[in-house]
What we know:
single chain; two-stranded antiparallel ribbon; 7 strands; 31% helix
Amino acid sequence: MDRFRIALVAFTPITTTLFKTTLTMMEKRGYPVVLYDGVGVPDLYLLDTDNEDACEAWRSEHLTLDAPLLIIGRKSYDFEDIPILAKPLKWDRLVQAILTALQQPAPKSTARWRVGYREE
Length: 120
């Protein structure tokens, strides 16, 4: 069975550890997901917008994307058609958001994003 490779972008060491644990739990419960190993292209990017500097650095290197994107964080960007999962996260919402995002197309561009707070 193929597994979806998920890349964690702009996560702090602590949140990276938490997400690795989450992906391991998902895999043990039958979801075909693993942490992206850096080889080839991931199947999904998870972008933590709370780490603004790391997020901006990554965005400037990835003006076009080759995989879908799921935004996670309190801060977000001014953009369209990219799912956002606000913190604090709940496990069931996170799993559903990942599964839904894996079915989405890659965003056309990240070039025009602007940091900002998402209004609910």
